[in-house]
Amino acid sequence: MPSTEEQRAEAALAAAEGWPGVRDGETIRTTDVPGMTLAVRRRAGGVDGLEPALLVHGLGGSSRNWSALMEQLTADVECEAIDLPGFGASPPPPTRDYSVYGHARAVIRLLDAGGRAPVHLFGNSLGGAVVTRVAALRPDLVRTLTLIAPAMPERLPRLTSIPTGLVGLPGATRLLRWATRDQPPGRRAREVLRLVYGNPERITPLEFAMAEAEMERRQGLPYFWESLGRSTRGLLNAYTLGGQHSLWRQAERVLAPTLLVYGARDRLVGVASARRASRAFGFSRLVVLPEAGHVAMMEFPAEVAGAFREFLTEAAVAAGDRGEADGRP
Asked: In what residue span(s) does the AB hydrolase-1 domain sit (predicted)?
């Protein structure tokens, strides 16, 4: 009789098989790490010997959110993108821990198991909060940090972000499940894309088709609403933590050079928090894209890739200057 671990691995493989939105040049694999099984999307670098990068998606997203950017970065880094537990092709964690710490634990275990660290670590939205925790807790795993519209606590949340936050309230997912029971996946996919894009006219037919296919498959999973609701609640809970556990306090502990990318048309994360972030992260470069929304890496992948390349050059020069100041050759 197969063990629980074997059953979980088989379920993960079945989930990953034929997962929608896998582009040419990409592969998806599942990997067992202590206590969980994770799906990882990979795009090989264009040349050998590139430094590794790991990309972490936002709330309700998946590794597919990084496909366009990974394609732009094939000459710069070797890209892998994780499906956080309960999202994409990753099964839910056995502990049902969807807190920011729980997701950070998944990223840390993947990096420890893979032996690729330190990596260039990317995060969008919820993923930005997650990788901030990772960089603060395990600086040995992170070469650089790139945060795209990171979900950090704001003094005055945007009104357009409030409905998303309400998903984390007790009983909200049951109500949403009932209210959307007859809603076609295409309609929900379009609503999500229109929320996160700065200019919905930039949503290509291919992107919409892939988003619709992924939404249809995910809504059929028995843990779809649980992973969404509990991850939202976990993020809101992280916003209430104070002292050393505060996300802003942990940002101040990050040692890695940090690239901050914000969209001026973001309906979920205000540009005002960009200024606070640029002060909180020690060595940081701030880029604001005037036409971008919440997912700049999907909407403007070439511009984000260009900003990352410039950032790497600046970080290398700064590292050399620090080495000279310390008397290192």
From this structure: 54-300
Separation of alpha carbons 306 and 124, rounded Å = 17
- The C-alpha atoms of residue 312 and residue 325 are separated, in whole angstroms, by 20
Portion of the chain with pLDDT greater than 90, in percent: 64
Instruction: Compute the distance between CA of residue 272 and CA of residue 167 in angstroms, rounded to an integer.
Output: 24
Where in the sequence is the domain holding 319, given as residue range(s)? 4-323
In a domain, 329, yes or no: no
pTM: 0.89
**Domains in the chain, number:** 1
Strand partners, 54: 80, 121
- Are the beta carbons of 104 and 137 closer than 8 angstroms? yes
Separation of alpha carbons 324 and 30, rounded Å = 43
> Which of 257, 267, 254 is CA-nearest to residue 296?
267
Tell me how long the chain is. 329
Instruction: With respect to residue 206, please indicate whether it lies within any of the assigned structural domains.
Output: yes
DSSP letter at 1 equals: -
Yes or no: say if 30 and 9 are a contact pair by the CB < 8 Å rule: yes
For residues 268 and 161, the answer to whether their CB atoms sit within 8 Å is yes
| pLDDT tens readout for residues 260-304 | 999 999 999 988 899 999 999 989 999 999 999 999 999 999 999
- The CATH number of residue 315's host domain is 3.40.50.1820
Dihedral of CA atoms 160, 162, 167, 170 in degrees, nearest 10, equals -170
Question: Can you read off the two tokens belonging to residue 328?
Answer: 């290192």
